[in-house]
Recover the amino acids of this structure.
């Protein structure tokens, strides 16, 4: 992953963990964060595949979390300016694609093959989640809960992966 995408990845993972909190405990929090970061990093690598793409999003900004917040019913009236600043680095499409990948490990494996291991690194917690991953992040891995976010931009992801939408609308 490009270092230029690090703020976008951090913000996207933070948004997912805020919207779909992990189970209680430090281990669960760390494991859920690893899954969210892997999903967002892979989605960002697909969305911004070249250094020029990464530089453009860094210069222009990804758009923010307003629509995602509205969709999930998040209320941020109490956020201070410092607290709300990270939300401007959330990319709606990247988060939507990450939700698709979290809900469907087979789809994540297809995406990882397209993006290439060298660009994203290891994503085993995303592509082959076990009992620990599901227990740590039951909301973050729940296809029905992720569906409103995943549905926003699923079609372009499936098109990019050259998969028919009907085949992959539901988790495999």
């Amino acid at each position: 992953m490009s270092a230029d995408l690090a703020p976008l990845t951090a913000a996207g993972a933070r948004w997912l963990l805020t919207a779909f909190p992990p189970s209680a405990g430090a281990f669960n929090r760390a494991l859920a964060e690893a899954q969210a970061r892997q999903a967002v990093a892979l989605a960002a690598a697909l969305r911004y595949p070249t250094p020029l793409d990464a530089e453009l999003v860094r210069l222009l900004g990804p758009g923010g979390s307003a629509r995602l917040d509205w969709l999930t019913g998040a209320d941020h009236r109490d956020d201070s300016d410092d607290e709300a600043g990270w939300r401007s680095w959330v990319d709606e499409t990247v988060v939507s694609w990450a939700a698709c990948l979290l809900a469907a490990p087979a789809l994540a494996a297809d995406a990882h093959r397209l993006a290439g291991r060298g660009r994203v690194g290891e994503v085993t917690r995303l592509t082959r989640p076990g009992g620990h991953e599901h227990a740590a992040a039951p909301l973050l891995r729940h296809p029905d809960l992720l569906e409103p976010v995943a549905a926003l931009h699923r079609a372009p992801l499936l098109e990019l992966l050259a998969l028919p939408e009907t085949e992959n609308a539901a988790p495999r």
User: Anything to note?
Assistant: The radius of gyration is 15 Å. The chain is about 65% helix and 0% strand.
